[in-house]
Each structure stands twice: as C-alpha cells, then as structure tokens.
C-alpha cells in the first residue's frame, strides 16, 4: 500500500508539473499559443507566470526532499548538553530524573504533560483469546471509539502501576496537559526505560526510548533515544550529561520547524531546571 501510494503521489506531481508547463508555455509561447490568454490583461498573465514558477519551485523542493529520504534515509536530529550542579547531591538529582513520585508540579516534564507509569513495555497487556461474546462486544465498541477519537490512547494496552522509581523494561505514558486546549488529555508518547544503572563508583545512567507516538509528536516513532549520566561528586560539584538523537522523514520539516536548535535548547533548559527542582526537594525534606 505504501509503495502504491508513493507511485500515485509521483504520478500526481508529474501531471501537475506538465500542466504548469503547458499554462506557462501558453502564456508566453508563440503567436498561436498566446491567443490562449489573449483576452486577459498583461498583469494577470505576468502574475500567472510567476505563480507557475513559484509552484514549480515548491514542487521541485518537495520532490528533492523525498528523493533524499529515499536515498539516504531519515534526517537526524541530535542534541547534547552538560551542566554542573552545586549545592545538591547526586541522589537528589537522580530522583528528579528516575523517580516521578518525587516530582513536583513545577517539574519540567509535568509542566507540559501528565504522566502515568506503566509496566512491561516490551510485552504489552494481552486480551484473553477465550473471551465471552460480551467481552467481544466491548472490544468492538472500544475499537469504534478509538477510530472516532484517534491518538487519544496508545495503540497497545499497558498495565499502569503506582508512581515510583523507573525500572528497566517499564516506562511512562505522557499525555497533553488537561488545560492545554484542543489536545488536552490526548496521548503524546510512550517512553520506555531501556537501561538504568546506579553504580557506587561510576556514573548513574538512565536511557529512555520512545516506543509509540501520538498527536503533536515531532519525530518518527521508535527513533528518539535519550541518555542521561550523573557523575560522582567532585569538590562538591556534580556533573550531568544529556545526549539524545531522533529522526524525521523530511529535511525540509527539520529546517522549517527548527528542530535541531529547539532540541538543543530544550536539553539545556531541562538540565538547568533540574537544579531548582533538586534544591526545592532538598529544602522540603529538611522542613
């Protein structure tokens, strides 16, 4: 189906380009062809010609972008950020990354999304094949509602669990905030904790991977991977490094949406905000 759709798109583009070539030739062709638009004023023909040039240029860019994707694959978006934290312990910082139960409402993740933890990302919840006819009817209704309201929930079913520290193979579902407008409450993405380590003499490591995406998600599904390392304290300072990478199909979209710059700035802002969150959590524990 995808191959057929790609062929149809190319055929439509070819037809459009041929029509544009015919109209521009009719407007500025020989004496016989010029009679095609003889009844129209010169200003109209001038604007029509440059409109055809503009549309031709846009189509050319679109086709070139598609060919680049076919030849070289998706476009990469990468980010890297480091921050030195002072006055907070490594465990306090770690809690702001790996333990959603200790996040306040001002946490950078909770400011833009509602979070619920789920278990067994790699093996989502399965329905009973020997279900009764009543259960089958319920599933049909559920499927119809999903068609009417796409992106409201993940495609797969996951078992939710109490807020606590992330575990390998488990993860979280992010939804748009309840007061975020038309997209309020809709599904944004599922993030899996693919690796988590807390060695005593080495850096703490947290690797998160997006396994399913919903409405408003800018990257290709199952391509975004982020890695956070928190190194042991040295002279009262804790170093944190965040790296990540994702992919998009269109290089034009990557440039137009400014994804590379925005992703880099978001990574820096995320680390800087963690310092305030860790400090506030530390003060709350003292009081």
UniProtKB/TrEMBL annotation:
Q: Where is the composition biased (Basic and acidic residues)?
A: 124-135, 141-157
Top-rank taxon, per record: Eukaryota
* Residue ranges of the TM segments: 12-30, 42-64
Where do the record's region annotations for Disordered lie?
124-157
Keyword terms, alphabetized: Membrane, Transmembrane, Transmembrane helix
Can you say what this protein is called? Uncharacterized protein
